[in-house]
Amino acid sequence: MSSSVVRARQHSVGDLLHRTARRYPLKVAIISGELRVTFSEFDVAVNRAAHALSARGLRKGDRLALLSHNCWEFALLAFATAKLGGVLVPVNFMLNAEEIAYILRHSGASGIVAEDGLASTAEKALATADVAGGVRGWIPLSGTSPGEGWEDVGAWWREGPAAAPEVPVGDDDPLRLMYTSGTESRPKGVMLSSRSLVSQYVSCVIDGEMSADDVEVHTLPMYHCAQLDCFFSVDVYLGATSIILPGPDPAVLLETIEREKVTKLFCPPTVWISLLRHPDFDTRDLSSLKKGYYGASAMPVEVLRELMRRLPDVRLWNFYGQTEMAPLATILRPHEQLERAGSAGRAAINVETMLVNDDDEPVPPGEVGEIVHRSPHAALGYYRDEEKTAEAFRGGWFHSGDLGVMTEDGYLSVVDRKKDMIKTGGENVASREVEEVIYELDGVAEVAVFGISHPHWIEAVTAVVVPMVGTALSVDDVLAHARERLAGYKRPKYVVLADSLPKNPSGKILKRDLRTQHAGLADA
Question: Which residue, of 371, 387, 418, is where some domain finishes?
């Protein structure tokens, strides 16, 4: 094809914003603190930021690291790099300087943008990584001035050319490099392209029943592709209004829903639980809320029932997937929530999902197997790691590392991560099954079940339970409840009561930390 035909057919992530701005130029696109911008203003700001990055030496294919909490500038740079054909590398703001340095070295970043509160960590990471950092952007979330060698990102989008840079961006040019927080010693860089992302947006729109009329609040970290690409970028694609909050503070979130008449909200189960337990939940007007989404981990069935009882007008969806799927793979829809409680639903419209055994052979309905997918959502592979890419994509399927069971009509239940399956006394125990049973006990706010090393059982089933405030829940209560409902080998050998569970910024419970913290229980 001629270059003019290629350009006429281009449908990259950067093009989506411009097309939405043509459809809804005066509609509010983003609310972030005191800032409110229309889609037309957003598009111009993104174009100016892209030109500013280009003027500072960032070229198509170059990597730009972004270290920040949720903010307007995060949204700006996600689309500015896409228009330039650059590769955005969102960085977990909870990482230390050494961990960030690894990402900078591995990605070959040409620069970094950091919020002012994280700039000192970014400086240490740059020095440790021995990266000059040709681009150094400063996001003044606390109102401070840039440090030496840093530039205020505000100057990038407030002035300069308003037209988009003319950069051809192909469907499979990488635009994102998402570093997983997996179980291995070093994170892997997942490469996502416009084909991966846009096809995933389409699945979210169709199966998640999203529309331009949505008003959504974004509270989970945008460095994670669930918030950034299942929800925020889809809102931009459709022309929906996005409210960006720095984090999932329950009081602020409930107040924002009431004030801005929010219609749509995504939270992992841990954040939904924090909302239900907050004293403001029953005093705020949440009547505008019509769509609720959960993911990142399974929703306890008892919590699901409570949500449906206390928010009867909110329709719920369960989104399941992995970063390598950009990230959506399967969806459980509103009318299936109770009938199929605990299920991850069926494959999204652009996804094919099946289960395989250790020899990569399909397993029949009702048997446990590894969850694998085929889809244009799938990543391009792992950056600078052909061996892990070949392993994960062997046989032409992406191997998720999750274990599941599928019904004859295609409904998937995620049993566990392979690493979270507890092997005790020669039997396999799914931690989620034990968690669901413990959640049925009155007075349980949260629970995490995992295995610890044991001289006799090899692994011992262990539960850390957070009681609801004001309850007198005891270890004996939990053990007695488990004895009534679980086979002997599935019952926790150890129960610990705690004030809270460790979580990452995406709301996932950190079972690795719990295993380390409680590793010595069997020695007592």
Answer: 418
Q: Which domain holds residue 448?
A: 425-523
Q: Residue 96: what pLDDT?
A: 85
What b-and-e string marks burial along 270-287, b requiring 16 or more CB atoms within 10 Å of the CB?
Answer: bbbbbbbebeebeebebe
pLDDT in tens, 351-409: 999 999 989 999 999 999 999 999 999 999 999 999 999 999 999 999 998 989 999 99
402 and 269 in one domain? yes
Residue 152 has phi, psi (to 5 degrees) of -70, 120
> Do 404 and 430 fall into the same domain?
no
Q: Give one word for 214, left, alpha or beta, with left for phi > 0 and alpha for psi -120 to 50.
A: beta
With a pLDDT cut of 90, the percent of the chain lying above it is 80
Please say whether the dihedral angle defined by the alpha carbons of residues 416, 422, 428 and 429, taken in this order, is positive or negative.
negative
Q: In whole angstroms, give the CA distance from residue 323 to residue 179.
A: 9
CA distances from 360 to 235, 363, 407 (A): 37, 9, 19
Distances (CA, A) of 46 to 37, 64, 82, 494: 12, 15, 10, 54
| Structure-token match 């996804």, residue found | 351
Q: Please state whether 61 falls in left (phi above 0), alpha (psi between -120 and 50) or beta.
A: left
Please give the structure tokens belonging to residue 502: 């460790």
- Residue 346 sits in the same domain as residue 411: yes
* Domain end point (choices 375, 403, 418): 418
> What does the alpha-carbon distance between residue 201 and residue 328 come to, in Å, rounded to a whole number?
9
pTM of the full predicted structure?
0.84
Q: Closest Cα to residue 294, out of 53, 2, 508, 117?
A: 508
One domain for residues 125 and 208 = no
- Token readout for 305 is 């029932």
Q: How far apart are CA 90 and CA 198, in angstroms?
A: 18
pLDDT tens, residue by residue, 244-288:
999 999 999 999 999 999 999 999 888 898 999 999 999 999 999
Question: Is residue 304 located within the same domain as residue 266?
Answer: yes
Domain shared by 510 and 473, yes or no:
yes
